[in-house]
Write a structure and sequence with these properties.
Elements (H helix, E strand, L loop, with lengths): L12 E2 L3 E2 L3 H4 L15 E4 L10 H9 L4 E2 H8 L3 H13 L3 E4 L14 H14 L1
Antiparallel strand pairs: 1-2, 3-4, 3-5
Helix pairs in contact: 2-4, 3-4
């Protein structure tokens, strides 16, 4: 295993074998968050200084929340199951370190319906491969 002493995630993840610490140990065996999150819930750090040290994984999640980010994005960046991320975020939310809000798609405008021409071209391309 390469020396990752400068990388905060180094001792916990190895590209060749994957995560070295099982996800349930990260959440102290808890499988249910105490706060409600879905995959598209936006989370952002409040800047509140935590009085207790929660651990490396909590610190990594909190660092990812410096700018608004979804639960799904945090799970992707950390390579941990979303359920574990929700438990860690619950811990942070209960301590006032993060706040949440629903994902807002309205500011991007209404989603256009599917383009019928594109769908037909996709269908035709797939039929040619069969």
């Amino acid at each position: 295993m390469p020396d990752d002493s400068d990388d905060p995630d180094g001792p916990l993840f190895d590209d060749s074998v994957g995560r070295l610490v099982r996800p349930y140990t990260v959440s102290d065996g808890r499988t249910r968050p105490t706060c409600h999150f879905d995959l598209m819930t936006m989370v952002v750090a409040t800047g509140t200084v935590l009085r207790s040290n929660l651990g490396l994984d909590h610190a990594h999640v909190l660092e990812l929340c410096r700018t608004p980010v979804t639960v799904a994005e945090i799970a992707g960046h950390t390579r941990m199951p979303a359920t574990v991320i929700k438990v860690l975020l619950s811990d942070l939310a209960e301590r006032g370190a993060v706040v949440t809000r629903p994902f807002n798609t309205e500011k991007q405008g209404p989603c256009p319906g599917p383009d019928p021409d594109l769908l037909e071209a996709l269908r035709d391309g797939l039929l040619k491969r069969l």
